[in-house]
Structures
1.
Amino acid sequence: MKRIKSVIMKRINLLTFLLMWLMMACGEENRWQYATDNIPPGQVSNVEVENVPGGSIITYTVPSDDDLLYVKAVYRMSDGTQVEQKSSATNPKIIVEGLGRSKKQTAQLICGDRSGNESEPYPVEIEPLDATIYEIKKSIEMFPDYGGILLTWSNPLKTNTVFTLYVRDEEDGTYEEVENIYTASEEGKYNLRGFPAEERTFAVCVRDRWRNRTDTVSGNIIPLFEEQMDRRKFVRWNPAGIPYLVLPNQGWEIENLWNGMGGDQNGWSSSQTHTIPQSITFDMGQLALLNRIKVFQRTTANQLFSGYNVKRFQLWASPHTNVNADFATWLFMGDFTSVKPSGLPDGQLTEEDNAYGAAGEDYMIQENRLTPVRYIRVYILSTHGGGMNVAQFCEIDFFGQIVTEEDE
């Protein structure tokens, strides 16, 4: 019996608490509001419009109704779909956005109160400027590149943008979609690769998150010839004066740099006993003219553009083994820096950052690229984490033109 009474008392206490909470909540106007009248609020006044790319900024004075809850703008998207944007009663501004080409239309400003009443619409004429994608389209340029094309553009407002790339099928004349690039970079570039050195038509269009879309920019381009160095010929190798650096007994051997596994793996790593700057060397097993390298960072353990991943390094090479720690015995191929597309602080990544890092970073070789080389020296100058002795690469791929298939 005592147990039954105890349970009943607990339920009574719980009900009492709930009733008190409901009474308190009903007193909070911003959280609980029942209809109190059927009188609509007044209209906005002193309306001003600033037309901007893809939209308009509308400012106004709200009516003096005590129970005013919001002001909304009702307008039509470029495809004719009716949409609305709401703003609170305390914010005397609404931003109309998502429009494509510049075109006049009448937006309706409507005030709503806490009883669900709405005012008579207040018509306001807007004429947004062309959306930023059309200016971005004007800046697009395409150039022949190794294995494909180099696409460049300018996006001064850093608008979230999608570039869709196409290649024309020479047999039936249709265009095949081959890549989508999601970016907000101010000054952008992208390499589309994987094509033979044969003339073909490349095209690109630009769209935004509201699905506004430009016409295509196209061009007939002959990609420059390149081939990937045969990883199967790569071997560990060290000249006099440059010891082999490794994180011992943890599976971070240099051979991982050419196993084709990308960044989601154990690559090569030095250890805390080493210091930066530091060098790693190896033999490609083939003599070649190099035009670019692709570097994969470590993407596991939240290391992308952070931690032990190499930030700045130099590439040196030689056609023969008569080299040592003295840089004068090597050919300088380039000084490269890993740059996060978003420019955000350490630990903060955008989707573009993740996609860029996962795809590998391309570095173009300009110095001595017409000299055949075989033996590689990577001279590490800094890491993304900074102030650390440990440095890591997960994979390094080499591209160019093989001069001979025979081992020297």
2.
Amino acid sequence: MEPLNKIPQHAGFWKRLASFIIDAIILAIVTVIIRAILLPAFPNRGAGFAFFLLFSGPICLIFGWVYYALMESSRVQATLGKMALGIKVTNMQEKRLSFGKSTGRYFAKILSAIILCIGFLMIIWTKKKQGLHDMLAKTLVVNK
């Protein structure tokens, strides 16, 4: 039985960065597999190859979105990288995210990235170790 007034241990920057690297490796492998499967459908030269690159890019982006949103809104509340590091994503009440909230958090990471990654660095100095995307989505990343 867990204590009633348990204070969450917020996951720090380095732990979150390590989980991101694990997830990036997983997504890179899947991207290579997706592109290897799709490549034979397009001629390997000229406009056909350019179309292949344009076509496969959005498919890989969609896969990344679905991976993060489904995993973080699932029963485990974590991607494979987060599971490996023993952390999970919650809402501000430490409950499981909906798929919609997890989707919003995923796309808010674009804003965290385009401002010279300052949105991610905010994890270092904010009280609850939240990045800009966490603040926008009203989420926390905590140790299990």
3.
Amino acid sequence: MSQGNVDVARRFLEHVDRTGEPLWEVLDPEIEWIIDPTGLLAGTYRGHDGVKEFFERLRESFDETHVEIDDLIDAGDFVVALCRTRVRGIGSRMTVEQPVGWVYQVRKGRVVKGRVYFRPMEALKAVGLSKQDAHADF
């Protein structure tokens, strides 16, 4: 069952990388979108309106955003996406690359919860996995 969940996460992340926009068709209308408390845009965003707010805030801070997938790990109802994000600040023009771990909870082909961790090991631990379960170096 979970390969479909991995495909949902891959489609979402590839779409964000290509367009800078969420792939709305795979986000549940009641989604809970959580950004690590250590992040610039930290917080909990609820529903499509919340995700839209997050992406608007992201565009206000960064004029380029890229996501490179290093590994997608099937964890049942969850998918762990180990990625590298690269952003360029609007004011500073400085580019920063950050390893991240996303945990997506998927139900019936839709992401119902997404949480980003700025320490990829925390994403693995959140679903009961360890570094040995990953195929990516971080």
4.
Amino acid sequence: MNKYILIAIITLIFSKAYTQDVAILDAYKDSIISYSTEMVNSNDDKRKVELSNKISHIVFYITEQEKSINYDLSDLRLVKVLTSEDKKFRIFTWVIPFTDRTYAYKGITQSYNQYKKEFVSFKLTDKADRLGFAQNKTLDIKKWYGAYYYKIIDTKRGSKKFYTLLGWRGISRTVQSKIIEVVTVKSKGNITFGYNIFDIRNYEYFGKGNRSSKRLIFKFSTQGNMYLNYDYQTIIISSKSKSKSSYKKKKNYKTGFNAQSGPDKAKVKTKSIKDNMIVMDRLVPTSPQMKEFYEFYYPESNIIDALLWQKSKWKYYSDIDARNKTDVKENSDKKIEYNLVPK
């Protein structure tokens, strides 16, 4: 048989097999959409849990399929799917909104095992309520600070890769939160949550001098809507030039004495940084007496802070220029899909 004909036959066989696989995955995706929609709209908590379990089984099936990391799941809405740029990590998260306005957080990860040259999948177990001061803890799949993630950012420090996740977590009837989480994947595909890559020494919300945060958790009122996303923005940095005070002797010819002029004024220099960065509303209490009572925290009007990836850290910048401030304001006013508070 002509080798070109053989290649064509083999290509056709694999093409048909791939088409069949995609058709199956499409059917499962439709099921996820149907189950998640019913889960959110149901008034029966037991039924919600049953539907969530069905979603979990289907997601696991999808992640175990060869090359499923390339399968497009962007049209899923209530089950959020985030895939890293390097296609080595993917995470599925969703929320069960119970009728008493409490929540359960579910997640499944898909990560690359470098030794076996294949992907492995893990189910996440939310233990946020038992973690105490979670901001400084390194966690794993069995102790996950559960959240609904809506953005993933790839970064590197040398050869080490970090996946920064932006997410939401409802805490109570009066308090919700936004989260900046950091994921690292080990050689065998094992997942670790939390890493100290934040330079937030001057971030007043977390306490000045904080050097040990492994994730950032912003708590605020359920009546507010904090903007937290990854945008292209401008940071204007002002600094005074270092100059030694110089005194020039001037002779007063009437008195015969030498006089000294005042010190030279320091020159103010400015420079701008234009780049992609994490930008967020500044959260403040309604009064100083309400500090750390997070149901009284709201976004400060027209003040945007930022975290810029510099020298392998997310470095905090206060009150950035935000040349795209109009877009930020428009987005912050929109109803967020992941705030699944029952009506």
